[in-house]
Amino acid sequence: MKSTSFSEDNYNIATPRSEFLEIENLVKAYPTPEGKKFVVLDNVNLSIGEDEYISVIGHSGCGKSTLLKIVAGLEKATSGSVRLDGKQINKPGAERMMVFQNYSLLPWLTVRENIRLAVDEVLKNASRPEKISIVNEHLAMVNLTAAADKYPDEISGGMKQRVGIARAIAIRPKMLLMDEPFGALDALTRGKLQRQVLDIWENHRQAVMMITHDVDEAIYMSDRIVLMTNGPAANIGEILKVPFEHPRDRAAMRNSKEYFELRNHALNFLDRYFTQDE
Ligand SMILES: Nc1ncnc2c1ncn2[C@@H]1O[C@H](COP(=O)(O)OP(=O)(O)OP(=O)(O)O)[C@@H](O)[C@H]1O
Hints:
By secondary structure, this protein is of the alpha/beta class. The chain has a domain at 96-172. The chain contains eight helices and ten strands. The protein has helices at 64-72, 111-122, 128-141, 157-170, 187-203, 215-221, 250-254, 257-277; strands at 21-31, 37-48, 53-57, 79-84, 87-88, 96-99, 175-179, 207-211, 224-228, 236-241. Strand 9 (224-228) and strand 10 form a beta hairpin. Helix 2 (111-122) crosses helix 3 (128-141), helix 2 packs parallel to helix 4 (157-170) and helix 3 crosses helix 4. Bound molecules: adenosine-5'-triphosphate. Keywords: ATP-binding, Cell membrane, Membrane, Nucleotide-binding, Translocase, Transport.
């Protein structure tokens, strides 16, 4: 693992390799029972490259999930625009797959059938043998071949999340959207699954937007970290460039001066906003 040069100038860099996802002047407000507006996101601007891994961090309630849901097409923006590959997003689409914290598997289907269902719905023109091979390939990718015929309530939380990830990537989306994908897992399982997701991403690079509350996870996994200000009317406070090339060696990275500086910078940002909120 090489670390690229890093200095205070690396902070606030917002120049992705290309503009694949473009969020411009995004505002999201909900109507209140009193007939007023509750502004959640106020003028968010962000571009993500087509093979870039982005993490979004911010205090609870600042609007991270709302932002992700707008990109997923599950929520509509009040104003502003979100484009993927030049096309305006206004509804869910198979080119943007979402992985949720709570797994969201269908309990009456086996692991294999949960993945197959997504493949059937999206890859309609694929032949039966092609579909079987895609499902098998992705079961193997997340080490679930032996558990393929088990039902969700027969497997662990970490395994359920691996099914969710395999299901999302099996249909080859242009962008992966993950809402605290490791949040419900114990530390050991979380570490293993982070590595597994990175292995897959390093072999099949794509745009990723991941929400997390964990600064170490964000540094380990992403190319840039988006720090959000507190709500209401939250927006992007800073964007930090992570100065380590993939594949990353977690232990070596953690011992570096750059890691220490970046981690402290992110934590100080979050502390500052937390203090303001008190
Ligand atoms: N459908 C809705 N109607 C009204 N307000 C909403 C709705 N959905 C979310 N909100 C409000 O928008 C704000 C942002 O919520 P959101 O879930 O996006 O935050 P978050 O940063 O993801 O929080 P957490 O980290 O706790 O998951 C919150 O104040 C929430 O109460």
